[in-house]
Fold this sequence. Notes:
Mean pLDDT: 78
Strand content: under 5%
Order of helices and strands: HHH
Low-confidence stretches: none
Amino acid sequence: MRTSLTTLxxxxxxxxxxxxxxxxxxxxxxxLTEGNAKFDETLKGRGLxxxxxxxxxVTELAVAAGLEExxxxxxxxxx
Length: 79
């Protein structure tokens, strides 16, 4: 996930499709849950620049690619 999330699914199939992104995300200004904090530390420990990304960052990339945020859905813990 450098700066594109594979350019957001090639801008969701050049405007004709939908893009769904699943995963744990951080939210700006909010503490991570214990489980997500542990997962984030595991990712960071791999030394490849990996970590949980902020959902706001993903939204900013999407908007810059011409996509529109329709919904962010909370998922149950440990799903």
